[in-house]
Amino acid sequence: MLPFLVFTDKSRPDDETRKFIRSHVMLGKNRRKAPPPTSPEKRVGHASPLYSVSGTVKSQGSRTGARLAIPAKVGSDLSTIQFADDVDPGMVATVIRFSSIAKRTLFPLSRYILFKRREENWVEPLAFDSLYLHAIIFSTHQYFESIRGGTNFPNPRTSIHLQKTLRLLRNRLSSDNEQARLSPSTATVVMTLAAHAHFIGDPASANHHLLGLQKIVQLRGGITSFSDNTKLAVELLRCDLGIALDAGSTPVFIGEASRVSRGVTEPLVLENELSMDAYLSVMLLQHIDDVLIDIWQVMARFCFLINRADISKEQISTELYMESMCSVMYRLMASEYVVGSTSEAIRLGLLAFSSTVFLQWKGLGRPYKYLQGRYMSTLVNLNQSDFPSYLLLWLFMVGAISVLGTDEVQLIVSWLPPKGTSNLPASWEKMKHILSGYMWIHAIHDQAGEKVFRSVFV
Predict the structure, then answer these.
(1) Residue 225: inside a domain, yes or no?
(2) Which of 75, 206, 256, 431 is surrounded by the fewest CB atoms within 10 Å?
(3) Where is this region: Disordered (predicted)?
(4) Residue 326 DSSP symbol
């Protein structure tokens, strides 16, 4: 969701960081001087921005304020660069330094996806959009603080940036500048606030921000209006889905996703006899919904393409990624079956599995409470005789690496066949072979899967 993690020491950037910074400082060359600093703001509540946005987008531009002059020649010292507001350069350096670490943690598939202008789209607004600047500084430092073991609530240093973010957002949304109100950077800020409110346990504010975000997207003409910033479109959907899976709510972009979703457009690739047997075992389940069969094919094909990309070192298009995510996750969220039924077990298995592929909130310590509870109830009430043993094994392993905690995994172990039976693989390699027959992305799932295998089966 949020592509930023940070570190709080005050040391100078390392060589890799300095190289990264130098590659971006020329993006704002010859920009006009910054407006004077704003007056100190008053303390405001988290839900204070009002999403009374109106109008339609007249252009795709996102630069809502004056661009700043960035020197043509600078060294590694960020103090020589003018940002959109008067901020501590060290805090901005922190954002830049650890963005790549967060990308690997929160978006492990990013190396397989071709995002156009990804770096420019998130770096450039730091120089001309003060609202975006404060929101990114706040969210970066706050998420690192929470991951490091601190509180989810802002400390005095970061709360200043939160207060500025809320005040500037409220001013922007009430202004007559239509292009600024509906800009990509404004959407990014609202998404950041929605995620933060959710993480600190404020569902009312999270929903408030999500509805505001939905209105911005609608007035722009839909999620596809971010065609020049597809990474942002993907992040908006990931944020929406993550909150819905945790809270058990309906995603606000479920209508938008239906216009992006295509279902099966190309034949499923079955690499070997095991894959064929696994696919048929799902197809032939009693009372299985046809929609789930279609979703299974979309997800299985996506896994095949990512595994192939990992070997060939190629990338898939952003459009294919977003279509697959919408075709799978939003359609699964729109469906629901009786707890313990065949269709509900497959739906939840696909939902849990796809969350590890498209979302990765578990890396932030979020257990997807709604999905976790629903998954446990379904496995416990499942009629095992309706399922092939290997499919049951896949459902267990998917739950263990995605939504179930250690305690839940131990409770479900008794649900599996006894150790030493012919139904259980004797080694991790055999287990991995079985899981791959259904669907499995080695680059994402192997490490977690092997850990579960050795703790449960060995």
Answers:
(1) no
(2) 75
(3) 26-47
(4) I
Q: Which residues contact 5 (CB under 8 A, 6 or more apart)?
A: 98, 99, 101, 102, 105, 106, 140, 143, 144, 147
> In whole angstroms, what is the distance from residue 12 CA to residue 433 CA?
47
Whether residue 93 lies inside any domain: the answer is yes
Q: How large is the C-alpha radius of gyration of the chain?
A: 23
Q: Do 278 and 173 share a domain, yes or no? A: no
Q: Which residue did the predictor score with more confidence, 16 or 172?
A: 172
Total of domains in the chain:
2
Question: Which burial class, exposed, middle or buried, applies to 137 when counting CB atoms under 10 A from its CB (0-12, 13-18, 19+)?
Answer: buried
> Do 185 and 277 share a domain, yes or no?
no
pLDDT at 119: 66
Residues 282 and 427 in one domain: yes
Three-state DSSP class for residue 317: strand
Burial label for 409, CB within 10 Å (0-12, 13-18, 19+), is middle
Q: DSSP code of 86?
A: -
For the chain, the average pLDDT equals: 78
State pTM to two decimals.
0.79
DSSP bridge pairs for 316: 113
pLDDT at residue 32 above 50?
A: no
- The two three-digit tokens of residue 366, written as one number: 């979020």
Whether residue 416 sits in one domain with residue 277: yes
Tell me the one-letter amino acid at 100: S
Do 303 and 433 sit in the same domain of this protein?
yes
Among residues 305, 299, 306, 263, which one has the least CA distance to residue 279?
A: 299
Question: Looking at this protein, which amino acid is placed at residue 169?
Answer: L
Among residues 326, 86, 65, which one has the least CA distance to residue 185?
65
pLDDT, position 123 = 79
| Among the listed residues 331, 343, 385, 358, the one whose alpha carbon sits nearest the alpha carbon of residue 441 | 358
For tokens 């977690």, name the residue.
448
Among 134, 165, 137, residue whose Cα is nearest residue 45: 165
Burial of 136 (0-12, 13-18, 19+ CB in 10 A): buried
Interval 223-265: pLDDT, tens: 999 988 988 999 999 999 999 998 889 999 999 998 887 665 5
Q: pLDDT tens digits for 66-85?
A: 343 333 333 345 555 677 78
Please check whether residue 260 lies inside any domain of the structure.
no
